[in-house]
């Protein structure tokens, strides 16, 4: 996880978006620090964390941006949030159908503010809560295929597929720029 004195070949900005409480901040915390908190505080403002990793012998600094969402009703903040982003993680909660039903709106916002070549992954988080599932995997998979998005179900709590989700996006970005 440390990146002291390391030569950086690439910096990729990736944004997290989706309804509040779907687990965006915990996905980021799992990826950046390998930490998880059940009583995570609501995100205030916009923040980012970084982690440097190696892809095909190059060091890539992933700069992951996280926000509460509400403040982005203000246009200027929305534009700043998406500016320079080369990847996006569109997150819903598999136990809350509404968070999945809102995905088309998030995708619309993304497509109207971000670069048109941005790499997008749809993420169904909280896969550890299988007994409370409200969104069938097939529904999400079908939506992702239709919209040309990558798709994975994750659990920030159990650390399932979080690494995989980030690597999917970062490797795809890497392949586009190389
Ligand atoms: P955000 O508003 O999208 O940033 O959501 P948070 O990351 O703050 O998470 C909201 C709540 O869901 C917190 O209580 C987290 O502990 C919980 N949470 C996040 N990810 C998971 C997960 O994978 N599984 C379970 N069971 N709870 C999660
Ligand atoms: Mg948050």
Layout of helices and strands:
Elements: E1 10-17, H1 24-33, E2 46-55, E3 58-67, H2 75-82, E4 85-93, H3 97-101, H4 103-113, E5 119-125, H5 137-147, E6 150-153, H6 162-177
The structure holds guanosine-5'-diphosphate (GDP) and magnesium ion (MG).
H/I helix tally: 6
Shape: globular
Rg to the nearest angstrom?
Answer: 15 Å
Give the strand order, joined by hyphens, for the main sheet.
Answer: 2-3-1-4-5-6
Number of strands: 6
Oligomer: single chain
Strand content: 25-35%
Order of helices and strands: EHEEHEHHEHEH
User: Helix proportion of residues, in percent?
Assistant: 25-40%
- Spans of 5+ residues with little confidence (pLDDT < 50)? none
What binds here, in terms of ligands, is:
guanosine-5'-diphosphate, magnesium ion
Mean pLDDT score, rounded?
A: 92
User: Would you tell me the structural class of the helices and strands?
Assistant: alpha/beta
Q: Characterize the main sheet.
A: 6 strands, mixed
End-to-end distance:
24 Å
Give the structure's gist in a few sentences:
This protein is an alpha/beta fold and 178 residues long. It is built from 6 helices and 6 strands; from the N terminus they run E-H-E-E-H-E-H-H-E-H-E-H.
């Amino acid at each position: 996880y440390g990146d002291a004195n390391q030569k950086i070949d690439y910096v990729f900005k990736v944004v997290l978006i989706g309804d509040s409480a779907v687990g965006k901040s915990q996905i980021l915390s799992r990826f950046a620090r390998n930490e998880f908190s059940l009583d995570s505080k609501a995100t205030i403002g916009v923040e980012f964390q970084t982690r440097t990793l190696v892809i095909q012998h190059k060091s890539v600094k992933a700069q992951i941006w996280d926000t509460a969402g509400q403040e982005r009703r203000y246009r200027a903040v929305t534009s700043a949030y998406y500016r320079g982003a080369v990847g996006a993680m569109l997150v819903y909660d598999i136990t809350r159908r509404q968070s999945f039903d809102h995905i088309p709106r998030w995708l619309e916002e993304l497509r109207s503010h971000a670069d048109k070549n941005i790499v997008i992954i749809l993420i169904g988080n909280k896969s550890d809560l299988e007994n409370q599932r409200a969104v069938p995997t097939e529904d999400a998979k079908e939506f992702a295929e239709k919209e040309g998005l990558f798709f994975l179900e994750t659990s920030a709590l159990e650390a399932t597929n979080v690494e995989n989700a980030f690597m999917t996006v970062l490797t795809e970005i890497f392949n586009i720029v190389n």
